[in-house]
Amino acid sequence: MAVYMNLKNELKNEDFIERDFEVPFNSLELPEEYSSKEDNVKVHMFILKEKDGYMVSLSIDSNVQLECGRCLKHFDMDLKGTSNIFLSKKKPGKEQELHEDDLITEYLEDEEKFNVSELLREEILVQTPMKPLCDENCKGICPICGADKNTNPCNCEEQQKEKERENSPFAKLKVLLEKKK
Ligand SMILES: [Zn+2]
Ligand SMILES: [Zn+2]
């Protein structure tokens, strides 16, 4: 179940609000390779009312478990960060004002039903790498024997290179030339 916020009500008598709350991780509908050892994502939001929308400063504190793109091991990644997002009540189009480059503008369809989970999902996707690595120096899995080269170094690849060298036309030529001597 996604978490919603009624911005119109919450900011009825205020110019800005500040909120701390937690959102269940599984409400975010992240891709299935994302999991977390924490049940909730901690959120801190500062919301400022503006003429055409709301300025949101979103800070998250979360932990995700990702699969290493090289060795396929699962590893934890802490996510902490703050983003500024402008929720625009105007439909995206020509009239939309330009904001500073580092400001993300999102179209706010219904200010009485602002989807917090969706914003968090996008934030987590942006903060996690496309090809996550357990370690920058992860050696990955041997394509030949399947061993995890971080823990079980093997020499399959060297052996294969050796074989390729032996089978190369130059190696054969060399053998023939040796025989001639
Ligand atoms: Zn790895
Ligand atoms: Zn191997």
Number of helices: 4
Distance between the termini: 81 Å
Mean pLDDT over the full residue set: 89
Number of domains: 2
Percent strand equals 25-35%
What does this structure look like?
The chain has 181 residues and is α+β, with helices and mostly antiparallel strands. The protein folds into 2 domains: 4-127, no CATH class; 141-181, no CATH class. The protein contains 4 helices and 7 strands; from the N terminus they run βαββββββααα. The chain has helices at residues 7-10, 116-127, 156-167, 169-180; strands at residues 4-5, 16-24, 40-50, 53-67, 74-88, 104-107, 114-115. The strands form 2 sheets. It has a 5-stranded mixed sheet, with helices on one face. The protein is elongated, with a radius of gyration of 27 Å. The relative contact order is 0.16.
